[in-house]
Amino acid sequence: QVQLVESGGGLVQAGDSLELSCAASGRTFSSLAMGWFRQAPGEERKFVAAVSRNGANTKYADSVKGRFTASRDNAKNTVYLLMNSLKPEDTAVYYCAAQIQAGLYAVPGSFGFWGQGTQVTVSS
Predict the structure, then answer these.
(1) Radius of gyration for the alpha carbons in the chain, expressed in angstroms and rounded
(2) Sign of the torsion formed by the C-alpha atoms of 25, 48, 53 and 98
(3) Mean pLDDT of the chain
(4) Are 22 and 96 in contact (CB under 8 A)?
(5) How far is CA 1 from CA 38, 85, 98, 99, in A?
(6) What are phi and psi of 29, to 5 degrees?
(7) Count of beta carbons in the 10 Å neighbourhood of residue 4
(8) Which of 34, 44, 74, 123 lies at a CB distance of 3.0 to 4.6 Å from 79, suitable for a disulfide?
(9) How far apart are CA 117 and CA 38, in angstroms?
């Protein structure tokens, strides 16, 4: 079993930056492919970013490409999402997710483990 705990959410203004963290436990972190998703009220959960097991490969949604950077520190069992140039449309609950198979995944159903989410609100 894998436990994931997100942190770092908050209320910011448009154009600001914010970094989310997700701490993992319960399994060797370097054996997990990680992902970030977000869900706005009334909408389905959407892919944001994915990070491979060793952090060498990443994948992003078009809506965040060039603004968000996903990374991981396997020594700290933590994955990060650095969000720059935030926009009001980035407002959502952000979730990290883990997958025990190697690769980059962008579909929520590919992930077996989820955190509780952290709220990010961007004011205009």
Answers:
(1) 13
(2) positive
(3) 97
(4) yes
(5) 22, 35, 11, 11
(6) -60, -35
(7) 22
(8) 34
(9) 9
10 Å CB burial of residue 122 (0-12, 13-18, 19+) is buried
Q: SS in 3 state form for the chain?
A: CCEEEEECCEEEECCCCEEEEEEEECCCHHHCEEEEEEECCCCCCEEEEEECCCCCCEEECCCCCCCEEEEEECCCCEEEEEECCCCHHHCEEEEEEEECCCCCCCCHHHCCEECCCEEEEEEC
Q: Which amino acid is at 31?
A: S
Q: What is the mean pLDDT of residues 6-13?
A: 98
Residues 19-78 pLDDT 10s: 999 999 999 999 999 999 999 999 999 999 999 999 999 999 999 999 999 999 999 999
**Total residues found in the chain within this entry:** 124
